[in-house]
Design brief:
By secondary structure, the protein is of the alpha/beta class. The protein contains 12 helices and 9 strands. Bound molecules: phosphoric acid mono(formamide)ester.
């Protein structure tokens, strides 16, 4: 007999639900089997039922994680997760590590700068070498768009894209969707404005795909130099003035100005950028009453967002985004592991 309570979204009874490995495995078996892909490379790998089920599972993990001493689960006991980050990270790297440990996995976080990459070993050789040690999942961040997809074709383990160039950051989109759903109850029908440097943002591309899939209206707001011309085909409304773009929105998602990815001067100065595009109290007042503020981090305070707004917990969901990162990544790691081994039991 199934140990999960029903196919209803877990959030409706999450206060009463004590998630354990068996309940999580049942939910995955009932609603995430088969998981749409062998790897998690893009938000577009999901479909609406899988996205809702992943969010329900992550929601239950989020409640579990709030216990004073969360009991370790054993969904990944005896399995190994390797974090391979060729770009810097605070949130993503550490939350994948915590998530894997909460599921009972062994975790290796490769110090890329101190690895044989520094002697010239290639990306593929590095991944193939690590794959020979039989990890379950390789979590990869790389500056080149398509890097995670390339590695997924070279290794036998599952690959999770932790950010590839300006292409995709699918677990960020999942944690953002979880944060929004917990704040508003549901995502369908909300209007979300993604503001700023869309051109260089994998976070924007992943969120556009997932939030649209879940029924939100997505707006892109920014200077024409930072909104790609292809955006017209992404199914979003595009605005080049903050007042119009923020008018009546439920969620204002600010993006980091990615100066390191810019070729040439796309903005006059960071000071002028803040004046026109930085989120402060005055601009936030153009959004709907009760609107919430998000930012994937790391923030450039005083450039794309004012500290006064970012640190106001009555409007800012930024710390909750970080918290939900662990739960969302637990859901992805558990679902991929079940896809690979669910039939073993
Ligand atoms: N949001 C995000 O990807 O942050 P990190 O670069 O710190 O991982």
């Amino acid at each position: 007999m199934s140990r999960s309570l029903s196919l209803k979204p877990l959030r409706f009874y999450s206060a009463a639900l004590m998630i354990d490995s068996a309940v999580a495995a049942d939910l995955i078996a009932e609603r995430l089997t088969p998981f749409p892909t062998d790897h998690f490379l893009s938000a577009t790998d999901l479909n609406p039922p899988a996205a809702h089920a992943l969010l329900d599972l992550a929601d239950a993990f989020a409640e579990h994680n709030r216990a004073p001493s969360p009991r370790p689960l054993d969904l990944m006991a005896g399995r190994t997760v390797v974090n391979l980050f060729f770009e810097n990270s605070t949130r993503t790297s550490s939350s994948f590590e915590i998530a894997a440990k909460r599921l009972g996995a062994d975790v290796v976080t490769m110090p890329v700068q101190a690895s044989s990459v520094a002697k010239g070993e290639t990306l593929i050789d590095t991944a193939v070498t690590l794959n020979a040690m039989a990890p379950e999942i390789l979590v990869v961040r790389h500056g080149a768009s398509g890097a995670a997809h390339l590695l997924s074709q070279k290794v036998g383990c599952a690959v999770v894209n932790a950010g590839d160039g300006r292409h995709q950051h699918p677990t960020q989109a999942l944690l953002d969707a979880l944060t929004i759903r917990r704040a508003f109850g549901e995502i369908g029908g909300l209007t979300v404005a993604i503001c700023g440097d869309v051109a260089h943002s994998r976070v924007a591309r992943s969120n556009i795909a997932l939030l649209s899939m879940l029924g939100a209206r997505v707006r892109l707001v920014g200077p024409s130099t930072l909104i790609p011309s292809a955006a017209a085909r992404w199914g979003c409304d595009v605005f080049h003035h903050m007042r119009e773009g923020l008018a009546g929105v439920d969620v204002v998602m600010m993006l980091r100005l990615q100066l390191e990815r810019m070729e040439g001067a796309l903005i006059p100065s960071t000071r002028e950028y803040f004046r026109f595009w930085g989120l402060d109290r005055e601009k936030l007042a153009w959004a709907a009453p009760g609107a919430k503020v998000m930012h994937p981090g790391p923030m450039n305070r005083g450039v794309e967002i004012d500290s006064d707004v970012a640190d106001d917990l009555s409007v800012s969901l930024i710390q909750q985004q970080v918290e939900m990162g662990v739960a969302a990544r637990m859901a992805v790691l558990a679902a991929l592991t079940e896809r690979r081994h669910g039939g073993d039991r």
